[in-house]
Each structure stands twice: as structure tokens, then as C-alpha cells.
Amino acid sequence: MRRSRPAASAAISPPATSTEWDSAPASSNLGVFALSEAEMAERKIIVTAIGELELPTGEIIACDPLITGLERPVFSRKVRPGCYPVTLLEAQGRVAAAVLRFGTGLPVRWELAAFVRDVGTSSWKSGFIVDDNVASFMDKSVLTLMSDQEELDSYLADVACSFDKFRMDNPVDGNPLNIAMFDTGFGDGNYYSFWGLDAAGEPLVLMTDFEVLENADGRESSQSNS
User: Fold this and answer.
1) How many CA atoms does the CB half-sphere of 136 hold within 13 Å?
2) Number of domains in the chain
3) pLDDT attached to residue 117
4) Tell me: the pLDDT tens digits for 178-209?
5) For strand 67-68 and strand 8-9, is the pairing parallel, antiparallel, or unpaired?
6) Where in the sequence is the domain holding 202, given as residue range(s)?
């Protein structure tokens, strides 16, 4: 069980310059989706399905649910509204990545998943800060599901402090709208997400990399010798 901690506040200053950025080399782990089951097993990567996430608006938030004082960021790219499976890639006993899957097949290219707040700014800001060893995926509509911000903050804190490794939870009984929460690799940090796109530029995968894998390999010996 996670020990309860007070919600943290954070602020990020705007970057001094604006740059274009190709996300392809930013993570050495995007090739994990091309691995066979046998290759995943050899590399000590475990795939855990944790449930399906309701996305009625198709606008996805990724954040540390315990950070307050910042607008919870929404990705600039939308997906078709629907219900999509969430899986975790685990290695070394830790959550190495969180994955939303929108379609079958192997992505043909990758791009950095920028937030609406970051469009037109330098790429480094497109990550999200984790201060409490937990991250989440949710639909934008969750933000207006409860009557006030304090009620939402309290709910998110209660859920985040009550699970071991991951949890899918419904904020309102009888409402299918839900939230996926999960541990974050080695803990606190600034984590980036990536869209895996098909040949038509449509999203197949959204992956948040928690920097446990190296070169799509979960073996500790592989990393220490690299």
C-alpha cells in the first residue's frame, strides 16, 4: 500500500526559445512494440493488462494526480472517442511504461506527445512532472465530473494512496467514466509520452516511458553492461 502524502504544487517557467523536434531518437524503447512474446520474455519484460479506459471526448490527460496548482495537461492530439485497453510494461519489478492502444498493427513512425499548453514551444516541456511516484491517464471530461476542484483533488489523492502498482477506478458510482493510475518506474521525474502512428498518421499507440527499460530491454545486466 502507498503511504499517503500531501498533494504537491509545481510550476514550470516558459522556455526561452521555440524549436522543432523529431521525437524518434528521444526514447530508445519505442522498438519494444516490434518484439515477439519470446523476445519480450528473453528481455525480462512483462505485459500486464489493467483494464479499459473510457475516453468519451478523445482528449487524454496524463499527469501525476497528486500535483495541484497546475492545470492537468491535455495532449494536443485527439483520438476517436471510445473505450481503449491500458497495459503496463513491467521490468525489474517496476512499471516501465504505460500504454494505451487504439488500433492493431505496428506503428510506422513516432512523434512526441505534446500537450495543448506546449504547442509552439520547445519540446522539453512536453513531459509531465511526477512528484509522488504515481501517474495517471484520464479523459478530459473527468475534470468537470465533480462539483469543485477540491473534491476532485481529494478523490484523486484517496485513490492514488490506496493501491499497489496500479488501479482502474470510477469516480462516480454508476458512471462508466474511469481513471487509470499506476506507479512510475524508479519514482519521481519528468516523463515523456509518444504517439505511435500508422501509415495514414492515425494513432495506434500512446506510450509513456518511465525510463526503466534501456534499448527496449528490461534486463539489469544488459543496462549495466551498455
Assistant:
1) 28
2) 1
3) 79
4) 999 999 999 999 999 999 999 999 999 999 99
5) parallel
6) 42-224
Query: How many of the other CB atoms lie within 10 Å of CB of 36?
Result: 8
C-alpha cell at 78: 485527439
Query: What is residue 223's predicted lDDT score, i.e. its pLDDT?
Result: 56
Helix, strand, coil percentages (3-state) for the chain, rounded to 5, are: 20, 35, 45
Look at residue 207 and give its three-state secondary structure: strand
- Cβ contact 105:137 at 8 Å: no
Assess if residue 28 is contained within a domain.
no
User: Does 17 reside within a domain?
Assistant: no
Question: Which tens digits make up the pLDDT trace of 96-149?
Answer: 999 999 999 999 999 999 998 777 765 556 789 999 899 999 999 998 888 788
Give the separation between CA 196 and CA 97, rounded to whole angstroms: 14
Beta carbons of 97 and 88 less than 8 angstroms apart: yes
**Phi, psi dihedral angles at 224 (to 5 degrees):** -70, -25
Under 8 Å CB-to-CB from 11, ≥6 apart: which residues?
69, 70
One-letter amino acid for residue 51 of the chain = G
Is 10 within 8 Å of 69 (Cβ atoms)?
Answer: yes
Residue 103 lies in a domain: yes
H helix or E strand, kind and range, residue 67: strand 67-68
Q: At 98, list the grid cell.
A: 504505460
Digit-coded pLDDT (tens) for 14-70: 222 222 334 434 689 999 999 999 999 999 999 999 999 999 999 999 999 988 755
In angstroms, rounded to a whole number, what is the distance separating the alpha carbons of residues 206 and 105?
13
Residue 86 lies in a domain: yes
